[in-house]
What does this fold into?
Amino acid sequence: MNWSRAHTLATGLGLIALTNGVALIGVAYNRSGEPEASLRLTQRELRVPYEWRGNSENSGMALKPMWRLPQEQAAGKFPDFTYGPPVWLDEAKMRELGFDPPPSAGSLDSRGSARYEKQLSREVLLVLELDGPAYRRSLELTAQYLAGEEAKLAASPGDKARITLVNNAREALERERSRNSRLFVADAGRDAAALRARYPDKTRYAIVRGEVRPGYFGREKYLGSISGLSVESINVPFALREVFAKAPKFVDTDRPDLAPFEAAVAFGRRFEPWILEATKK
It folds into this structure.
């Protein structure tokens, strides 16, 4: 019995060592050679997850990339670039990613729609765009929304409900200009070389892995949605923790002025990120 317990313990420790060794080899491979891309992100794009409760002595720290989705808003609708299908993830793109859309989306009943929605999600390559056309479009749409609400208020001056809507719209535009993340998921594909040829600027576009799943919206459109990135957080090296010690928490979106910083985030051969350097502003 004693030998059995010792043998079990040794086997367990060996498996742990093997797992850690494989992980370290993967990290070394990912970081070998020149980075595939390098983005300079700030507290607008990187947040300390709310669940982190450690300190610099006995616990690690990780940052969560705050990515968003380019969308076209219906007239008069409050702008939202966090939820829902991105405008480019249409039926043609879903076919390109290997999904099987139905022959005619609008002709399906609820049972038929559910059958196609049950296709399993797929890991694909996603393109992260920093401070590019998608972000500029978000500013434009938010400004258009504000202009529309101001026009409605001008037609009904003194309307308290309209005044509140205008104030909310002004705050939304201010957040978009100076607080919200400028990092958008701009495209997807299965061929890294083809994506890099389409987005050659490695200081603005990074390729990562992520999950895409199919779905219906109003039973008329077969679209995809992004479930998340395969690597959802970036570990902070011990030597750099002080830079992020008072950084905004994941839920603290209204305090962009708190501990501002800039971090160079590299993406390697396996499209996984790590922090090269970071400084307080």
